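Per reviewer request, we include the raw input and output of the structure prediction for the construct analysed in the revised manuscript.
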Amino acid sequence: MPWVPRRHANYLDREQHSTQVPHPFRYDRRMMDEVAVSSKQLQSQATKRRLINAAFEEFQLYGLAGARVDRIAERARSNKRLIYIYFGDKAQLFDAVVVRDVEAMIDAVPFVVGDLPGYAVELFDYLEDRPEVLRLFAWRNLERTHTSEVEQASYSDKVAEIAEAQRVGRLDAGLPAFQVLSFILGVVGSWMIASDALRRAACEGVTRDHRREDVRVAVTRFTTRSTF
């Protein structure tokens, strides 16, 4: 074995030791950068969620025109400037809120073309439990003509499924498929958008269960083949 000065031998021993057993407190710089980026992303996502939630409360109460960015930022405990950084402007924030709630409704209430009365009842219950969502959608219909790709695809798919069921004879074809879907949605929301005068004219003792059953009966009647 060649002779190695003791000072160099100690150095080699340390190098071998450090290669075999990494120091527990020695961090890779790139790893630290990745952790920092991940932390910033989490903070950014949390801020966006707070803004979306605060914007929902504002928009469902006041609509797009009446909503105030200052109130949204204050409710979200965030800087108003971040609304413009993350969403562009108030209208785009409104659209983002609508898309979120449309997607939530689609996920929560699956469309079953083989049980349209059941679908109508499920949608009825969903909106009865969330009147603020229905108000948000009403504001959107009043103030925005733009609809998201998610919503467009959802309606297109539902109409196509109804049309196919009509074609093969599983649903009555007396009404166009789009009209069938329109009537279902109209029946579901009829009482929710009724005027106070109509509500007063209703018989006393009409409960949510009664109205739910009325939705089922109505949708059954105009989607059953023998109806027309």
